[in-house]
Amino acid sequence: MTTILVTTANGATGRPMVDHLLEAGFTVRAMVRADDQRAQRLREKGAEVVFGDLLSFRDVRAALQGVQRAYFNYPLGAGLVEAAVMFAQAAREQDLELIVNMSQIQSRPRARSKATQSHWLSEQVFDWSGVPTTQLRVTFFMQWLLYTSGLIRHGRYVMPFDGDSRFAPIAARDIALTAANIFASPEKHGGRVYTLTGSVEYSHTELAAEVSRVLGTDLPFEQVTATEFLELIGQKRESAVLQHFEAAAIDLQEGRLAGVTDAAPSINGQRPTTVEAFVNGYRALFETDYAQAEN
């Protein structure tokens, strides 16, 4: 039986990936940071839960022991390249059949964002390792809308990007399904680079209008600075995160996230989630109790 390690298994892509892989009949080892209710839910689904830190070589080696395929995903912040080096080394030791690596659509060696540049360097590390690796260069998640759901509930659509910059948002569940299908056919996908987007490109102003239409409310687009945005959504203004947001705003203006690809629908055999379906799926988070009572 093939065992697949899913790192950040309680994350936006990790949780649905565990579901997809279990449904496909794989043995799943879910790597998380803490033994909490979310970890217990993974156990209840049928996953083997292990605890560890991607910046601990001992933890990574233990997590990959006896595994044949693995998903590598590292949260935004310092340490990505170091974590990739340790993961690649441990994967070589285990002679893994496939690594699926989460990267960014604007990955490149001269990226303004340290995090984006680190994603490009991590891609190189996995290629150098000799372990067959599929690189997923992913655009902005639709989950961005959830970060601002508290603001949307009170009639504000706020982003740290200009309204005319364009991208095609993709739901985390579609990314997870893509990775699960890649894991099912390692010989077909190993060594490939896929750019994953949703099926419809929007400007940020157009996206605000689409969310407004679905919710039946008025949400004019509002641009703020990256610092103001982090304060509004209650996130720490860590320098690495702030610098990444500021660089991403320029990337968007330069068109580095524009365009639509067919990678996800081709691999999955279905269209990616629409913005309308995504918003309706999380509708309770976007509406006040008063608004829900009136519907």
TrEMBL record:
InterPro entries: Ergot_Alk_Oxidoreductase (IPR051604), NAD(P)-bd_dom_sf (IPR036291), NmrA-like (IPR008030). Residues 3-243 form the NmrA-like domain. This is NmrA family NAD(P)-binding protein.
